[in-house]
Amino acid sequence: MEVGRSLLAQTLRQSMTPVVMVMATACVEDSCHKNQLGLVDLLRPFCILNQINVPVRTASEQPYRLQEFQLRLFYSFDIVQMRAEAAEEHLLKLVTDSSSDAAMELQGDPRKLEVVRKMAESESLSSWFQKYSREFMRTLAFSEHETIDHPVACLLVVSSKDENPVNKFVDLFNTGELPALMNDGVMDPKILKHYVLLHDNQDGPINRAEEILLELRSTFGVGDCRLISINSTHPDAVSSVEDLWSTPTLPAIDQNAPKERDDKGEESSIKMRPGSYLDSNDVEELADFVLDFSQKHVIPYMEQKIRVLNQQVLATRKGLKNQIKNLWWRKGKDETSDAPGQIYTYSSMESQIRVLADYAFMLRDYELALSNYRLLASDYKTDKAWKRYAGVQEMIGLSLFMLDQNRKEAETCMDAAFISYQKSGPVAARHSTRCALWWAEIHKARGQYREAAGVLFRAATEMEKEATLRAGVLLEQAAYCYLRSTPPMLRKYGFHLVLAGNRYHVSGQRKHAIRTYMSILSIYEGQGWNYISDHVHFHLGRLSAFLGRIDIAVQHFMNLIACSHQSAANQTIFLKEFLQVVQNLKEKGEMLDLSLPCISEHIFVHFEDHRTYSSASATDFPEQVWSSLEEGLVPAVPATVTTWLDAPSKMAEQTKDFNVSVAGEEIRVDVEFSNPLQITVEVSAVSLFCEVEVYTGESLREQKKDEIDDSFFLNRTEESFTLKAGEKKIVSLKVTPIKECRLKLLGVKWILSGIASGRRYFPVLTGKKRQLKGRGVQDRELSPHQRLKFHVVGCMPRLQVSLHELPDKVNTGEIHRLVLELLNPTPATVKNIRLRASSPAYLLVGEPGDLDSEFPHCLEDPRSVVTFMEQQCGKMNDALSSHGSIFSFPKDTILESSCSLLWPLWFHARSPGTIALNMVVYYEPLTPEPSMKYRTVRISHILQVLPSLCLSVQISPCASQIEQCLLRLDIENQHSSESFWLRQVSCIGHEWCITPLNSVTAEHGENSETGDATVKEAFLSSSVSPPQLLPSSQTSSFFFQLQHTKTLRQDLQALTSDIRLGPPSSTEPLVPVNTGPIYHFHQLERSLQLNTKQKQVTLNKLADNISESLLSGPEFVDLVLVCGQQDSMIVEKRVTVHDNVRLATHHVCHCSVKGSTPVVWAMEGPSLIVHNFLTDPFYEASVSLTVRNCANTSVWVKVETLDLDEGATGATGNSLVQGKQVGWCSTSPVSQSGDEPTVDVISAIPKTSGEFECDEYKGVSPCGPYMWCSQRSTTLRELAAGSVARVPLHVTFFAPGIYDLSSYRVSWKLFLTKEFQNLPLESEEKKGSFKGSPMTRSSSFIATTGLTSDAFGNSSQKNSQGSQIASEINTGAGHPFLLTLLQDKSL
Amino acid sequence: MANTACFVIVGRNNSPIYESEVGNAPKKDEAMHQHQFILHAALDIVEDLAWTTNTMYLKSVDRFNDLVVSVYITAGRTRLMLLHDSRSDDGIKNFFQDVHELYMKVLLNPLYVPGSRITSPYFDTRVRALARKYF
């Protein structure tokens, strides 16, 4: 920037101007005050002479021209050094007043950096800081160490009204009204005097004044006198003169006169336009006067003085001789003078030089001024007159600046001046500030803003401690300098503004402080320097609160309250201040976007559309569980496929982000609140706030955005809680729409510490956009639990479903009756109720009649058998099978408002583990709603099933009876503590019935029908029957006999056969297993077990052709074990309706009756014959062999009797491995029992005795005890499946004894039917294969018979190898058949 | 021994990613924001100085009253700044170098996002240990 046009140059040209001392009489002042102006003020506007052209010739011979000039007018009593306190007071007032100016200069939001920068760059003389600095310098004027403010001329003004004006002039100058400095001899009293006679035209014509002027001229000289007339305008006339005075250039410094202040008050109350009595002639005259005065008197006088002084200086100080002399003289002086504060009077050489330099500076001959200042500086330095030295250095710096020479030197000079001022004590401290201001301006003028900032900062920090205001001003300017530097140093700027703001704040300048702090916000915001931003916000908040801008204060404090990094003490302070401010807020209920407490972004919305939940646990299950359950239960939604060709339907757009909810049902939102602070925070009245749109017409809808007035539409719950330091809490907030509307959950609101009400909007989650490859964007569906918009449907029924009498823990196999209660609390009516359970094997839907009977006795009630069986059974089965376990309540079931429906359910804990009973109840409203056609209730219960009894069944065909099997039932109690009462074993099936084994023994002796009961009972109660009670972790085995039902009864109803376990004396009723829930559970169990079996079979890959019919055929038996459990003491404490019996059933299904062979045979014949061998040496008995085909196909069977001698040789051999001998043998009892451990105990008794006797007879008749005498071999060509054939046989005995007629052999071949063929048959015969029953079992079975045959051995070996190529003919040996021949002793 | 020392790591985006008061002076609440102000303002100077030198250690770049700011710039323009009131150039230089090494280890952590706050307590204890060692 050009130096001449810089701000500093302008300032210097304005302030470094000659001072004219004005002395006026009271009359003059009176006249002037008519215009509301003092004399000085009246003249001041004319002192700025801009368009002059005065030639000036100073020390050099070359004249130059001054284009502009200025005079400074002061009353003589104003020419006095200001007291520091008064100066400070004045400046304080100035700063306070200029706060609005400063704000105006910003021309915009101080928070915007650009605005501030613009302001800083457009700094001009009128900006408040420049004003401040000018005023500041003015307070330092008229100091003793510099002569620049010393008056150059004196203007003596006397009014024409004054009596004896000439004497007045003399008196004016001599009556001691001269400034103190002049009296002290610091100022030169011999100055240019100019005499002015002021005439007030209102007082009279000008003639008298002219007379006085003439008199004056004769006294003081023609040139030095002048007449001025003012107040020419008529008092009433409006002045046409331009108002030059109303913008006062220099406000009065009221330093010592409270009186004056009062006057001012009066003046301002009049509010008259200044200068209103002056007309244009007056103004012209005044301007003319000032111009004339300065051109013709002041400037020539100064020129004159400069030249004189310059001559003097040249004579005494310039030149080598003078310099040496001066040096020497100074040294000498130094030695003599003790006092450091020596006074340089105006007549001293130093003062003269200073005057010379200052005059030169004022007349803008900077070269001359500079040389003299330099001269002076060395003098003062050697004199150690630091203040004067500093003053001179200052001027050197300024002169250099004005000359734009040697920048470096200018800086060092200013630096030296600054330091010297500081050195010279606290008195000069303000001068050092002035120096710094100039210095900074020099830098600024040169564009060295960083240096300027440094200077200002240095001045601010190194000044006296009390001057905080001045420091603040300087620091603010330093900050602006940093802002203006290139590149802008924003952080320095911010820091210095903070410092300035702090200083302002300390000195009570809150408006300035808030302005500075506001400007920083943009620099520190969001930078992560949290302590800084906290500090800024805190101070801004406080200042705003002080200034009454509560709303702004609240905004700032809101940024503070969630500061987790601050200490607990600070947090408490921040929160306290915040709450105070909020309390002072005018609008009490105003919602603030508070950040305390913190609210997690993740929210979870619980609501119920068509899906409702009966309990909280039901909501925890994933949607897939339910949707799979609902499949088929709810009407399917037609899936609409849209392509990009279809126009997006409006409806879809509208409903896309909406959940459906029902009026009157609450919507719950889980929100997580957390407290980041280290102090406890109280939160109350936490609730949701929403936006409600109510449909009022077809398409018109009324919007209710107002959060307060929506209680008509919504019911809300309010929560209150206390959050400890760092605590997190999940709060469920509920809202219930009352009417049909469109609801939008906007956020949460709460009241903090009972004072500040805050709110937080929920984050708006839109479906995340997914970028497809080059295809644009696809919306992803938002989870319904995050959607916040609801279509509220009016008036839908909602069923409450509960499940009663469900225990938490059950043992496996237990049967319970549960009661399902459907309650309709809503006004709407419900129809078309349907139910589906997730685990049909566990749950069965009962009949309403079940409720009336008493559980568990209803299970024991035989009467229920018939009704249930005939009426419901089939229906239920159909329902279960056809709809996939969906149960529809009767069509006419309608649940009206506040009605409830009870329905029984049966529960059977079929397998151990933790099971979840999930059910879905479907229903429809009676009056259909278009947007919601149906609803469902989801019910979930979790219960634990403990393991109790484990059953295993083994069935082996009975050797002696073709229609009988032996059944072994092993029961293991797996429960850890419980004991079980075994009550009953039942067999379900058409084909077979179960009987106790004792009847076997009874039937064995052909008189089963006649066997008396007492024997049976005794038998049952004996040790043969295991105890009924099975303690925990024990096992027990039971043996039963299975009988073909065809042989017994034919009626269909007797599907079951039951055996009561335990002592026969027990009176407990039998539990009918073929009816009621037990039967249905059995059916379910059957199908489930079938599935598992089928799986096993297919895994074996033996044959994929095994169909269900194979497993459910007559070869299979289902067993049910009923056991009871007496509830222990714990249960007894409860008052239960039932007598604490818990019934359990265990089902074993599909136990195969089929033995190892497809053909079963048994010998039939008399068992006891009495014959007299003495009369008849041999006895021929006729027996018959019954052969039964158990296979699915017809068989070829051949029965061969074996000769006795064939087996005789092998009698001792008796081993399977060696067994080449075929025929009868006597088997030793030892080997028998060893080979066949599973042989029944009962059957073993007669056998051993038989063996014994057999041995005996062997010895008696070595040729053989008996002989077959019928056809040796009988062949049954084709025995149809399931059919029985009888082969008559004859045997001849030779001696009495017990015979085992087992020396026969049965061979068979299977005919495969077409279905089983893999290849076209070459022959009718095909090898048979044993399916299902293990082969190893057959071999051991053969061992029991004790017979060996060549062919059989081969076949069995081959079979046991498991090869598929079985021998064509399978052979089995005969079963033992004991025949006792007694010698008839009677004959 | 420095009575006051405030150590800050400033990330590339000029926000502090790690702060700790490592001096043995009693911790004062008012001091915290003052330290931050000084360090933050010093960033301007650092920005200027960084282009004038090849070394990473910039020595003391700025001062406020009797507090000195020493700065170390990593190659990734992360600035390690120490505010202290005593001069022990060697100690500070060594401290910076060791902390730089620690910072590199933090950067190697794949779970650490460069420019985010360093919250590792391990880093914090190590820095404090280094501070005790060198000042």
Description:
The complex is a heterodimer of chains A (1387) and B (135). Chain A is of the alpha+beta class and 1387 residues long. In chain A, α19 runs antiparallel to α20, α22 runs parallel beside α24 and α39 packs antiparallel against α40 (1350-1360). The radius of gyration of chain A is 64 Å and the shape is rod-shaped. Chain B has 135 residues and is an alpha+beta fold. Chain B has a single domain, classed as 2-Layer Sandwich (Beta-Lactamase). Chain B is built from three helices and five strands. Chain B has helices at residues 29-50, 89-108, 121-134; strands spanning 5-10, 16-21, 57-64, 67-73, 79-84. In chain B, β1 (5-10) and β2 form a beta hairpin. In chain B, α2 (89-108) packs antiparallel against α3 (121-134). Chain A binds chain B through residues 461, 482, 489-492, 494-496, 498, 524, 527-529, 531-532, 534-535, 566-567, 569-570, and chain B through 14-17, 29, 32-33, 35-38, 40-45, 65.
User: How far apart are the first and last residues' alpha carbons of chain A, in Å?
Assistant: 166 Å
Shape of chain B: globular
**CATH superfamily membership of the largest domain in chain A:** Immunoglobulins
The biggest chain-chain interface is: A-B, 22 and 18 residues
Low-confidence stretches of chain A: 253-271, 334-341, 769-779, 862-883, 999-1026, 1048-1054, 1098-1112, 1128-1139, 1206-1262, 1314-1367
Kindly name the structural category of chain A. Answer: alpha+beta
Strand residues, percent of chain A: 15-25%
* Count of distinct structural domains of chain A: 6
Instruction: Identify low-pLDDT runs of chain B.
Output: none
Compute the separation of the termini of chain B in Å: 5 Å
- Treating each run of at least 4 consecutive H or I residues as one helix, how many helices of chain B? 3
